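Researcher: Excuse me, tokens okay?
***
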Amino acid sequence: MNISTRENAFFNWIYKKSNVQILLMLILFFVALLDLMPRVLQAIPIFAPTQDSTRLGLGLFGSIITLSGLLIGFLLNQAQSNFREVQTLVSQEAGRINNLDRLLTRFGDPSIAPIRIELFEYMNSIVNDEWVLLQKGEGSSKTHMLWRGISRKLMSIEPQTNRQTAMYTDIIKKSEEVAESREARIERSNIRLPGLFWIVILICMFALMGINTLFLPSDSFFLGLKILPITMGALISLLVITDQPFKGQNAVQPDAFYKIIESIKTRKE
């Protein structure tokens, strides 16, 4: 099992938990790493802290915690940007399907009605068949075949009037935009922070563990060992929760599609 497979297995497992569970698990992990482990190591004679090691720790601590904070802040911003990008893609796709249905409604040809029915089925297929597969970065073959049938029927439309000819150009253009939107959504469903960033975060955390081992025990030392892991656990849990837009309790939902489905239902020809 390679590193990528193990990473995927870990994230698939953790995204089955609620946001609160992820928060608590990561806080407990960092309490063990940054609080308990330094105490255990200090009990070993070779790692026993001294005045010199405390001065060294003070010199290193500020730099490492600053770099770690900047890295986590940067990654949080990147994860939020990725999440908003996916939300925008979903809203755009739903809006384009809605616009396509409007054009078909106004086309003024009774033969268009079956295409609108298939477009409605296509919308439902996105929500019911394809959405769950986006967690794996995959699309639904059923949804694909539905769109393929719609596309063929749109291409076979024969405008009868100048007005229909003008609208037909818009219909074809809009159908191409719908197809591109679906492809973009499926492609971006795999969006996530590169595994290298998680490795760097772990390196920074183990470095902090080592630095905490250098400090002589004191009241402020023990207080710091409580505050630091809780803060780090909370920040990194937020990073995990927002990292993969289609996974977890905070995943992107097809609300925009539900609204358009209701609009198409009530739209009269």
Q: What stands out?
A: The first helix runs from residue 3 to 14. Residues 93-190+253-266 form one domain. The two ends are 56 Å apart (CA to CA).
